[in-house]
Every structure is written in structure tokens, then in C-alpha cells.
Amino acid sequence: MDVVAALTPFALVCARTTAFVFTAPPFAHGGIPMTVKTMLAVLLAVCLAPGQTAPDGAFELVTGVVTEVGIGAGMGLLASTVLSAVQSAGHIIDLEGGFQLGEAFDPLTSASSGPYARFYQMLATVLLFASNGYQMLLLGFARSFAAVPPGAALEVRGLSDALSREVPQLLLAAIQIAGPLVAVLFLADLGLGLLTRVAPSLNAFAMGFPLKILLTLVLGVVALVALPSVVSALASRAVDLILGQP
Q1: Whole-angstrom Cα distance, residue 109 to residue 5?
Q2: Residue 135 and residue 165: Cα distance in Å, rounded?
Q3: Cβ atoms of 171 and 91 closer than 8 Å
Q4: What pLDDT score was predicted for residue 134?
Q5: What is the pLDDT of residues 191-232, one digit of tens each?
Q6: Would you put residue 245 in left (φ > 0), alpha (ψ -120 to 50) or beta?
Q7: How do the domains of the chain map onto residue ranges?
Q8: Which residues contact 39 (CB under 8 A, 6 or more apart)?
Q9: Read out DSSP for the chain?
Q10: Average model confidence (pLDDT) across the chain
Q11: Close Cβ partners of 87 (under 8 Å, ≥ 6 residues apart)
Q12: What is the pTM of this model?
């Protein structure tokens, strides 16, 4: 009975840690092997299980495991929503710079994306590891057990409210990241349009795609310079959402 009593809290904690690791960035990245994700989830459960309580009874245990999976997946989804602003900025640059024509299937995200979107997504993952942003996420997740202990009810309404608040912020952050480059590309389109009006015989738009691609490659550094601070701020925001702070 002592073994069962000790393993019951571990099962609940492990259900939450597994769902979080498999949904939250940067751990959910397709480039991280499944074995590494599983080992990380079990290690987190071993560290966080001591001192946790669990309900009695088989039915309560099964219900608790399902609830913990929902809580962990919800926290991971919130973190993923916040940090996906970087990849969304890459999609905007692909669209405005003409790189969307080279869109291909990305096996790491199981979705179709342009080169800048893939590059920004990989760069954000690297920055999370290089700047210890992943430690902030893990610390916030560990503190969530004090705010929402194992066996607590899953607040679906709170999760939906948080997601509805963060989707506009995601779009705003993506526009802020890609904004300077998008403004330059818009001015380039405007200049080509004026040039066509002045010299109709000159096919200015034939130069549009190579010119915009050149500007995107040259001026893309502007957006990259601000990316480390942006990723750090987004990681802090993700931690606040995990802890339930608006």
C-alpha cells in the first residue's frame, strides 16, 4: 500500500509534465527526439512529485490523470501561442518579401511554411536555450503546482479566456517584429507603382520580385537584432500565463 500511495502522486504529476513537455516550446520542437522528451517529463515528475497529494480510489485516480493531462496541455498551449509570434512574423516577411512562393512542407512543425518562417522558428528555439528562457518556463511550470495542485479541477473557461486575450497580442507582437521590414517592402512597392506611372513603357513590376527579395535579405538583419529581447519578453509572458497571471 505504501508503494501505491507513493506512486499515485507521481502518476498525476507525470501526466501533467508529459503533456506540458510535448506541447510547450522549445521542448515540443520536432528536432528533439521523443526519447529525450519522455526522459525530461519523467525527470520533472520525479523532482516535483514529493510533497504532492493524490485522491483515493481508482476512479478518482483515472479522472485526476485525465485532468492533469488537460492542465499540462493547456499550459503548453498557452506558452506555444505566445511564442509562436516569432514564427508568425516570419510568415509575414515571407508573404511581403515574395518568399511565400518557395513554401514547402516542414517536417519539424508538420506544416507548410516559407523559409523565413522556418528560420525564425528555429532561431527562436535556439534563443530559448541560449538565453536560459527554457529555465524560466520550467520554473514557472514547477510553480504552477502550488497554484493548481494535482487533483484540482480543470478551468476550461479560464483557459479559453486566456487564449482569447493572447491571440490579438500574438498578432500585435508578430507585426511589431516584422513591422520595419514590412514598411520598407511597402515603400518599395509604392516606388515601383510610381515608376510605372511615370514611365509606362518600363515594366517596373518585372523587377519587383528580385528587388523585394534583395531588400528582404539585406534588411532582414534589422528584425534579427531585436529578436533576442523579443523572445525573452515572450518567454516572461508565457511564464505569467502558466502561473495564471493576466
Answers
A1: 39
A2: 25
A3: no
A4: 80
A5: 777 777 777 776 666 777 777 778 887 877 777 777 778 788
A6: beta
A7: 2-93+108-176+229-242
A8: none
A9: -HHHHHHHHHHHHHHHHHHHHTTSTTTT-TTS-HHHHHHHHHHHHHHH-TT----SSHHHHHHHHHHHHHHHHHHHHHHHHHHTHHHHHHHHHHHHHTGGGG-EEETTTTEEE-HHHHHHHHHHHHHHHHTTHHHHHHHHHHHHHHHS-TTPPP-HHHHHHHHHHHHHHHHHHHHHHHHHHHHHHHHHHHHHHHHHHH-TTS-GGGGHHHHHHHHHHHHHHHHHHTHHHHHHHHHHHHHHHHTT--
A10: 77
A11: 113, 117, 120, 121, 124
A12: 0.77
Write the burial class of residue 99 (CB in 10 Å: 0-12 exposed, 13-18 middle, 19+ buried): buried
What are 7-43's pLDDT values in tens digits?
Answer: 778 888 888 899 889 888 888 877 788 898 889 888 9
How far is 212 from 203, CA to CA, in rounded Å?
Answer: 15
pLDDT bucket at 1, cuts 50 / 70 / 90 = very low
The Cβ of residue 108 has, within 10 Å, a number of other Cβ atoms equal to: 14
Beta bridge partners of 226: none
Amino acid of residue 198:
V
Q: What angle do CA 127, 46, 158 make, to 5 degrees?
A: 65
